[in-house]
Design goal:
With about 400 residues, this protein is mostly beta strands. The chain has no helices and 35 strands. The strands form eight sheets. The protein has a six-stranded mixed β-sheet with strand order 1-32-31-30-29-3, with no helix packed on it. It has a five-stranded antiparallel β-sheet with strand order 2-28-27-26-25, with no helix packed on it. A hairpin with a 2-residue loop joins strand 25 (about 285) and strand 26 (about 290). The model is unreliable at about 1-30 (pLDDT under 50).
Length: about 400
């Protein structure tokens, strides 16, 4: 069901600070192969999504909550559900192509390339198995399985230069050979479900302690480490990177900061306070960071999507919803798309914070949407994947 806007967001500052992103449309050529669109995790898509109140192209009933970002490649949509099913469905019709069962909760995000679909299996209360599976993308056949001595659950995987970078929930960040799944190196971390980032052959990762490490992609050698001063754990937020810096949310029990850190040496450039605690990842476009928060932080509280200038910390606008915002915003053209615990997917003008439309599902939305060929792909806790156009 599609609702017309009923209220305007709170606009805090003039909107002339944002420059336009190019709105480029690639008919039948665009793909989405990873969380947040690219290895810098900016959330910016080289495409356009629905600008006006959309219609439902199709929805798929997974029967269990869908938290992951659906990925789209060469006419096939890939996603997982909370119970461990892995799906490949037809991009045009939503009909099932294949599915596999991990028999336990999968990693919150998946990744793929032209050959492989990589899905982690988190630890189970019933056994101590934790592993990463490389599936043949077209057939769903298992090609290899990485099952280390680290039994804490395999989570986020990233593909880069024929290597896989994989985090466990408690102990290590691994480097694997993409073709064989054999371990190349490992680096101790304090775990987490955030995504590794890669820029100029350097890998960055924010762990559960909210500290950030920069590592050599080739060797795993530490280049620098930025320690968090917070005593709160946050295992879900992923930073974003631009030409100079890495931008990270450091959450406290109440509020927190957005940290701007030199990506070459790990030195803190600036910290900007945020009012509410956040489990959202940052999206980044033209020196504006977009991130959700938990509002007042209790049952029934409202959450907000925020737009902040990362040069000076000024809050450009804040958009209020009737639920927590824990997924990231996805940016296409002049629009930022995001879901809320209030059951709605929102499309908001990224310059002004004014709502363009919202679309209601039957439960909260924690899935970060993907934008491919003018369509918006996302999952809901109601157990469905939705495709809007």
């Amino acid at each position: 069901m599609i609702d017309k806007p009923t209220a305007s967001p709170v606009s805090l500052l003039a909107t002339g600070l944002l420059a336009s992103l190019p709105s480029i449309f690639f008919p039948a050529l665009a793909d989405s192969t990873m969380f947040q669109a690219n290895l810098e995790r900016t959330g910016v898509y080289d495409d356009t999504g629905p600008e006006n109140p959309p219609k439902l192209a199709w929805k798929f009933d997974a029967g269990s909550p869908v938290f992951s970002t659906p990925l789209v490649y060469d006419g096939i949509v890939y996603f997982t559900d909370f119970e461990g099913e892995v799906y490949a469905v037809n991009q045009n019709s939503g009909s099932l192509i294949w599915k596999k069962n991990l028999e336990q909760q999968p990693s919150f995000q998946i990744t793929l390339n032209e050959d492989f679909l990589l899905v982690g299996r988190r630890f189970s209360r019933n056994d101590d198995k934790s592993y990463l599976i490389a599936f043949d993308r077209l057939s769903g056949e298992e090609i290899w399985r990485f099952e280390p001595d680290d039994k804490t659950g395999m989570d986020a995987a990233t593909i880069y230069n024929d290597m896989v970078f994989l985090t466990s929930m408690s102990n290590n960040l691994f480097s694997l050979d993409l073709e064989t799944g054999e371990e190349i190196w490992r680096h101790p971390i304090q775990g987490g479900s955030g995504q590794p980032l890669i820029s100029n052959d350097i890998l960055f990762f924010q762990d559960t302690s909210q500290s950030i490490d920069a590592l050599s992609v080739a060797t795993g050698e530490k280049i620098w480490s930025y320690p968090s001063s917070s005593n709160k754990q946050n295992s879900f937020s992923t930073p974003a990177i631009d030409d100079c810096c890495i931008y990270s949310i450091i959450s406290e029990n109440e509020g927190g900061v957005v940290s701007r850190i030199n990506k070459n040496n790990g030195e803190l450039i600036a910290e900007f306070p945020i009012e509410f605690s956040s489990m959202s990842s940052i999206s980044l476009a033209n020196d504006i960071a977009f991130f959700g928060d938990d509002g007042e932080g209790h049952a029934g509280a409202h959450g907000y999507m925020n737009a902040m200038n990362v040069e000076n910390g000024e809050l450009i606008w804040r958009f209020e919803t009737e639920g927590f915002i824990r997924g990231a915003g996805s940016i296409a053209g002049d629009t930022v798309y995001f879901g809320s615990g209030d059951h709605y997917m929102y499309a908001v003008d990224r310059h002004t914070g004014e709502m363009k439309w919202r679309y209601e599902t039957d439960a909260g939305i924690a899935s970060t949407p993907a934008i491919v060929d003018g369509r918006l792909y996302f999952g809901s806790i109601d157990g469905h994947v939705y495709v809007l156009e």
